[in-house]
Specification:
Blueprint (H helix, E strand, L loop, with lengths): L8 E5 L6 E2 L3 E5 L24 E4 L3 E3 L4 H4 L9 E4 L7 E8 L4 H9 L8 H8 L4 E2 H4 L3 E3 L17 E3 L13 H8 L2
Length: 187
């Protein structure tokens, strides 16, 4: 998927009332009154098809290196790629997702959604879908900020492209760690 064109960034924002084109960044209204992360179910809906294929990155993910490094990992744009849950091996996580165009798997997730069925959206998605690949199968550059219970990633690995915070502590709550503080303060 290598390209010299910088990726277009789309931000879904639940407070926006209309779309805003800011050059390489487009702000789209996220029309959902679902609780918490369930708002993200809209990513699987038909309104998002016009933007596919696209890469979804959770806001609690630190982009350490160029995001183009992640795009370059996508060798087959038709594959539905998710994170493998860091603590539950073999289970998908939804913090980093490649959404292919016209994907039956994502369409089935949307069609199967009727209402909030559990505390976590990824639990619902796991019941109806297996990803084609996990990101961890194609790269060793994505890291968990909480590699073990009670342990935090205090030293940033040199090969890191992304660090997934996935919950507490949030990025801004971990500023007592030097690399996180440097990341937050980077201009």
């Amino acid at each position: 998927m290598e390209s010299s064109t910088p990726p277009r960034i789309i931000v879904l924002y639940n407070i926006a009332s209309q779309s805003y084109d800011l050059g390489h960044i487009t702000l789209l209204p996220l029309r959902s009154n679902l609780p918490g992360t369930w708002m993200r179910i809209a990513l699987y809906g038909p309104e998002m098809e016009q933007y596919k294929p696209f890469l979804y990155i959770d806001l609690d993910t630190a982009i350490i290196s160029s995001i183009e490094n992640i795009f370059d990992l996508v060798k087959d744009e038709s594959k539905f790629i998710t994170l493998e849950d860091f603590w539950q091996k073999g289970q998908l996580a939804t913090g980093l997702v490649w959404f292919p165009s016209n994907c039956k798997k994502t369409q089935n997730i949307w069609q199967g959604f009727k209402s909030v069925t559990s505390k976590r959206m990824d639990v619902f998605i796991r019941r109806g879908c297996k990803p084609d690949l996990f990101w961890q199968q194609i790269t060793n550059t994505i890291f968990d900020f909480k590699p073990k219970p009670g342990q935090l990633l205090s030293v940033l690995p040199k090969e890191a492209n992304l660090v997934c915070f996935h919950g507490k502590p949030r990025i801004f709550e971990a500023s007592n760690i030097k690399w996180v503080k440097d990341y937050i303060e980077y201009e």
